[in-house]
Design goal:
GO terms for molecular function: mannosyltransferase activity. By secondary structure, the protein is mainly alpha-helical. It is 60% helix and 4% strand. The protein starts with a strand and ends with a strand.
Length: 672
């Protein structure tokens, strides 16, 4: 198994066209000593320049910091090429293999053709990888590496990982700009960037899962959120509005190309925008939906929402049945079981349910976020902003169309459209993160943005001071600048020494068993050999050796899920003849058994892979504990355990050709 051991010796503009729209949000950067237009313009330019420079520095420094951690953790520059490739674990290795495949092709056109007509990712099948997977970024990067004059200075792997770490600079800069736009001061952007770094464990995992799809997609998602935030500001000039729309289009397009889960994110954003528009909290033309008294409007909204949901479900089912689409059925089975709509014995659904990444957000996450004061700040800002949003929504729903709130006797609480959008964003994605831990990386970076912008915003401090009858412009300015500054000083004092220790801690990649396995495969098996095994391991086999696979970790295809379940019978209680028939039906020449899977202890009973297979096959699980009453004792022992005994029934079908402390490789007999 792979391990890490100690080495042996050796972070937009604050001035917008709608500045006059929010008299309480005038920032000190725009309040100049002289009232002259020239002096004010000069101050704006200086502030914009300083803020932009800090954004650039924050982004670059974060990128360098994460890249250094990656290097220090693996000693990436010193290990062998095969060790570098093995460090791209599970699906990361699969994605990187296509970048490698494109570079090894005689020409770019031939490499492109190889991806469109691929017969090595899934044995006995020819698939269009560009259609199946989100690997356009690997294609683009391989083309750039071929075209740019960098081959003498950068190895392909470094060109790849440096691009990913470079995108982190874009990511942090986008978070910085969003916070700046919301608050009117780049101090908020600096605080958001600092929180992103000090909460690195919960905001990103790029340093140890470099090729993961989210590391490509989330920087563009952050750019899209910044562009939407700017677009929602009222009184934009036509040119600014068009540029914002262009930024939204481009960032959304790239985001959708680079991540297979983009549709869920887009759905949440659409729901948020629909809710805000329905509550008159976005600058939009009046609709019939927004007329009438409170009860009438609530009824129209509910009916409209019901019609949309029913129509969506109907069209979805009709489309899938017409085109025989089953790629997402495992997601609905997983969601049904996860939220308590009945237990399931479905292997695919249980495979997700038993993974920690798809479980609820652990409570210790809030402890870590509280250590940096991020969670406390977020709860404070969320409480004030949500209260203002409820007051504005109730006023909008209760008032008559076209009637000013002052005339209706309503309160003077207000909430800018861009603030309302980001409030809805953090609430919706917060619920998503709470329900599924893997999705926390969509929420926690925005947590930094929302908390930082709120602490620096007049929309938060102004109402509080008015409620306490302490409001003066000077007091508000003192609070919105002193509180963030104190938090920044606290973060530096508390976390700077630890970050320096991290940068000085040198470790080394160490996985000799996997290296030995890959070297053996390359040296002792034909290039056309087909390998069966666990999804995670086979991704490494393809990357390191180029051999053909029976299955792989990109699980969004119904045919692949069926293949994986068939291959995984090597860890179930099945006779050797059935296992051999299943593997040979997929064209397998070799099968790799892993002790860490066969004798798994990482998961609790009921969530071990062998338990999931036993339940799916109707068999009683191993070990002490309860079983469902209709499960029966298996008629055969567990294959992965029994094959090691070299009994005649097994040796005539499976010949051991390699073994070490972790892996056992068997060659399948062609004629049973």
């Amino acid at each position: 198994m792979m391990s890490i051991r100690q080495r042996k010796g050796a972070k937009a503009s604050e001035v917008s066209e709608d500045g006059a729209a929010q008299q309480e949000s005038v920032t000190p950067e725009r309040e100049v000593p002289s009232g002259g237009c020239t002096g004010r313009r000069l101050w704006q330019i200086l502030s914009l320049t300083a803020g932009g420079a800090i954004a650039l520095c924050a982004g670059v420094l974060t990128s360098v910091y994460l890249a250094t951690l990656h290097e220090n953790d693996l000693w990436f520059s010193n290990i062998k090429e095969v060790e570098r490739e093995i460090s791209f674990r599970t699906e990361c290795g699969l994605y990187y293999s296509y970048y490698k495949q494109m570079l090894q092709a005689p020409s770019l056109l031939q490499g492109f053709h190889g991806l469109m007509y691929d017969n090595k990712t899934e044995s006995m099948r020819t698939i269009n990888l560009l259609q199946r997977m989100n690997i356009y970024q690997e294609v683009l990067l391989s083309a750039l590496y071929r075209a740019l004059p960098v081959q003498k200075y950068l190895e392909p792997v470094y060109f790849y990982i440096y691009t990913l770490f470079g995108l982190q600079a874009v990511y942090v800069a986008a978070l910085y700009v969003t916070s700046w736009l919301l608050s009117g001061t780049w101090l908020a952007g600096l605080l958001a960037a600092c929180w992103y770094v000090t909460n690195r464990v919960d905001t990103t995992r790029v340093e140890f899962t470099v090729p993961l799809r989210e590391n490509w997609a989330l920087p563009f998602f952050a750019v899209q959120v910044a562009a939407v935030t700017y677009f929602l500001r009222p009184n934009l000039r036509p040119l600014s509005e068009r540029l914002a729309l262009l930024a939204i289009f481009v960032s959304t397009f790239v985001f959708s190309l680079t991540w297979q889960f983009n549709q869920f994110t887009m759905l949440l954003q659409a729901l948020g925008l629909f809710a805000l528009d329905s509550l008159d909290m976005l600058p939009a033309l009046k609709k019939d939906l927004k007329t009438g008294n409170l009860l009438s409007r609530l009824g129209k909204l509910s009916l409209h929402l019901l019609v949309v949901v029913c129509l969506t479900v109907f069209l979805n089912n009709v489309t899938k049945k017409t085109l025989n689409l089953k790629s997402d059925e495992h997601v609905f089975k997983f969601l049904k079981a996860k939220f308590g709509f009945g237990a399931t014995r479905d292997f695919d659904a249980n495979l997700y349910l038993c993974e920690e990444a798809f479980g609820l957000l652990p409570l210790d996450t809030f402890g870590r976020l509280s250590d940096t004061l991020l969670f406390h700040a977020h709860v404070f800002v969320l409480g004030v902003t949500a209260a203002a949003a409820l007051a504005v929504a109730f006023r909008n729903l209760s008032g008559s169309p076209g009637r000013p709130p002052q005339e209706a006797g309503a309160c003077t609480v207000s909430l800018r459209p861009e603030t309302a959008y980001n409030l809805m964003h953090t609430i919706l994605f917060g619920f998503l993160a709470l329900s599924t831990m893997r999705m926390k990386y969509l929420w926690t970076p925005h947590l930094c943005v929302f908390a930082a912008s709120g602490l620096c915003s007049a929309e938060v401090w102004g109402p509080l001071l008015r409620v306490a009858r302490l409001y003066t412009p000077a007091r508000m300015c003192v609070l919105r600048y002193s509180v963030p500054m104190l938090i920044l000083l606290s973060l530096c004092y508390k976390f700077w020494p630890g970050m320096m220790d991290e940068l000085s801690e040198l470790r080394e990649f160490y996985d000799p068993d996997t290296v030995e396995l890959m070297d053996w495969i390359k040296a002792n098996t034909p290039g056309t050999a087909v390998f069966a095994g666990s999804m995670q391991l086979l991704a490494g086999v393809k990357l390191c050796t180029g051999r053909t696979l029976t299955n792989h970790p990109h699980y969004e295809d119904s045919g692949l899920r069926a293949r994986t379940k068939a291959v995984y019978q090597i860890y179930a209680k099945r006779p050797p003849e059935e296992v051999h028939t299943l593997l040979r039906a997929l064209g397998a020449d070799y099968v790799i058994l892993e002790d860490s899977v066969c004798y798994e202890r990482r998961h609790r009973r009921g969530c071990r892979l062998r338990d999931l297979l036993d339940v799916a096959n109707g068999h009683v699980m191993d070990g002490p504990g309860e079983n469902e009453p209709d499960l029966r004792q298996a008629a055969h022992p567990r294959f992965c355990e029994e094959v090691r005994r070299d009994l005649p029934a097994y040796t005539q079908l499976f010949t051991r050709v390699f073994q070490n402390k972790t892996f056992h490789v068997y060659r399948l007999a062609r004629d049973p």
